[in-house]
Design a protein that fits this description.
The protein has ten helices and 21 strands. The protein has 337 residues and is an alpha/beta fold. It folds into two domains: 274 residues, Metallo-beta-lactamase, Chain A; 57 residues, no CATH class. The strands form five sheets. It has an eight-stranded mixed beta sheet with strand order 6-5-4-3-2-1-20-21. A hairpin with a 5-residue loop joins strand 20 and strand 21. Helix 9 runs parallel beside helix 10. The longest helix is centred in the N-terminal third of the chain and has 14 residues.
C-alpha cells in the first residue's frame, strides 16, 4: 500500500505546503482513495501520476474549508474529462449540502454516478481493495478518522500439508485456495449390496489448508483532533497512524484549547503507548517554516524533535508530494517525492 501527500498544511496554504489531501493507493489495481480535498487539490494532482478518473472514493474528515474547498473543482474536472465510473463521497452532511449549493449556483452538472454516504460510527464500506470504517474525533466541528484495512488478499495453499495427509492434487486444490470447503471422497467405506458402494467422505476446510499470503495491512488516518486517545480502538492492530500535529506543545499551550488541535507530543505519546510501529505527522501550522532565517521564526524541525523525544517507532513528517510505501511486512519507508 502507498500513501501520497498532496497537502500537509493546516488552515491556509504556504509556499511549501498546500492544505489537506492524502491519497491512499492499494497494491492491486489503479483505483485509489482520497482523504480530504482542500483547495487546489486538483492542481496538486497535476504534478503526480495519479488519475482523478481512477479515484474510487473521497473521504472528508470534517467540514472546515482546508479539508473540503477543493471538492467541487475536482468533481467538475472529472465531469469535463468524461468520467463514467461511480464515485463515492463520504463525510458529514454539511459537506453534501455545501456541494449541492455549489452545484446549484454554478450550474455544475455531474452525470457520472455520485453516491453520498453520511459518515457515522456505523460506516463500513468496501472499495479499492479496502474495508473502511469511521471513528469519532474531538474538534470544533464533528471530525472523523478513517480506518482502512486491506481485504481480498490472495491465499496461499499449503500443498505440503495436503500431500502429507494423502490428498493428491486436483480441482479441490483450487477450491480450497479460493476459500471454499470441499467434501472430499477418501475411499470406499462399505458395500451394502452387491455392486453398491458407500463412499466415505471428509470435509476439507479451506482455513486449515489455505492462508492469506500476508497479514492484512491497516492504516488509520485522522482529521483534526485534540484527543489522540479517541483512536485507541481504531488503532488496534494498525500498522500506521497518520495524524495531525499542528503545533509543538508550547505553542499549543500558548494558543489555548479553542482551536482543538494536537501537538507533536500528544500524538507521539499516544502512538508510543499504543505500540504503533509507524507514525506520519501532517497538517502543520504555517508558522513552522522549513528553513527559518530569523531568530523569531519557528522551524518544522521543532515538531520532529518533540515527536522523537516521545516516540521510538518509525517516524516521518510529511511534505507535499512525499510518497510512502507500507510493504507487506508492515515496514514503512519513503519511496519518492
Amino acid at each position: 500500500m502507498e500513501i501520497k501527500f498532496l497537502g500537509t498544511a493546516s488552515g491556509a496554504p504556504s509556499r511549501q505546503r498546500n492544505v489537506s489531501a492524502t491519497a491512499i493507493m492499494p497494491d492491486q489495481g489503479k483505483h485509489w482513495v482520497l482523504v480530504d480535498c482542500g483547495e487546489a487539490t486538483q492542481h496538486q494532482l497535476l504534478r503526480t501520476t495519479l488519475s482523478p478518473q481512477k479515484v474510487s472514493a473521497v473521504l472528508i474528515t470534517h467540514i472546515h474549508g482546508d479539508h473540503c474547498y477543493g471538492l467541487p473543482g475536482l468533481l467538475a474536472s472529472c465531469q469535463l474529462n468524461g468520467r463514467k465510473d461511480p464515485l463515492v463521497l463520504v463525510g458529514p452532511n454539511g459537506v453534501w449540502e455545501y456541494l449541492q449549493s455549489v452545484m446549484r449556483f454554478t450550474e455544475l452538472q455531474i452525470n457520472y454516478p455520485l453516491e453520498f454516504i453520511p459518515v457515522s460510527e456505523d460506516l463500513c464500506i468496501e472499495l479499492a481493495g479496502m474495508r473502511i470504517t469511521a471513528h469519532t474525533l474531538s474538534h470544533r466541528v464533528p471530525s472523523w478518522a478513517y480506518r482502512m484495512e486491506e481485504i481480498d488478499i490472495p491465499r496461499r495453499l499449503d500443498v505440503a500439508k495436503l500431500q502429507a495427509e494423502g490428498i493428491p492434487s486436483g480441482p479441490h486444490y483450487a477450491q480450497l485456495q479460493q476459500g471454499l470447503n470441499v467434501d472430499y471422497p477418501v475411499g470406499v467405506d462399505r458395500i451394502d449390496e452387491p455392486g453398491l458402494k458407500q463412499v466415505a467422505r471428509r470435509l476439507l476446510k479451506s482455513d486449515e489448508y489455505a492462508y492469506p499470503s500476508w497479514q492484512a495491512r491497516v492504516i488509520v488516518i485522522g482529521g483534526d483532533n485534540d484527543s489522540p486517545e479517541l483512536l485507541t480502538g481504531a488503532c488496534r492492530d494498525a500498522n500506521l497512524l497518520i495524524h495531525e500535529a499542528t503545533y509543538t506543545q508550547d505553542m499549543l499551550e500558548h494558543v489555548g484549547p479553542e482551536p482543538q488541535h494536537s501537538s507533536a507530543e500528544l500524538v507521539a505519546r499516544f502512538a508510543q503507548r499504543q505500540g504503533l510501529n509507524n507514525l506520519i505527522l501532517t497538517h502543520f501550522s504555517p508558522r513552522y517554516l522549513a528553513n527559518p532565517t530569523k531568530k523569531r521564526d519557528r522551524g518544522i524541525a521543532e515538531i520532529e524533535q518533540e515527536a522523537r523525544a516521545h516516540y521510538q517507532g518509525t517516524l516521518f513528517l510529511a511534505n507535499d508530494f512525499d510518497q510512502y510505501c507500507l510493504d507487506r511486512s508492515g515496514r514503512l519507508f519513503l519511496v519518492g517525492v
